[in-house]
Specification:
globular, 4 strands, about 100 residues, alpha/beta, about 35% helix, Transcription Regulator spoIIAA
Length: about 100
């Protein structure tokens, strides 16, 4: 199994690192679901993501749905170029709140 890491700061910043693919996104979703119960804003910093694929995009869309349900403003920063290109192919880059 590929690995990833999650580092949660007190100011709503969540740093995600490692590999985001089919083998990791379900576990990552379970580890991050509780984050949406507190703050009014969350920013996922993806600068340490080393590899990702369409499963990562599916997770991000799921996070956006959860954020909307909990009335949390969600943004993504330091979006990896390869993932941005994939989002563009799927036509969803405008939906991802990339800053």
């Amino acid at each position: 199994m590929a690995d990833f890491n999650v580092e949660v700061a007190t100011d709503g910043l969540v740093k995600i690192g490692g590999v985001l693919d089919l083998s990791t996104v379900q576990v990552l979703k379970k580890q991050t679901i509780g984050l949406f119960n507190g703050p009014s804003e969350i920013q996922f910093d993806l600068s340490a993501v080393s590899q990702s694929n369409s499963a990562a995009l599916a997770l991000m869309l799921e996070w956006l749905k959860i954020a909307q349900k909990h009335q949390v403003s969600l943004t993504f920063s330091n979006f990896p170029e390869h993932l941005l290109q994939l989002a563009s192919v799927y036509g969803i880059e405008q939906d991802l709140n990339i800053i």
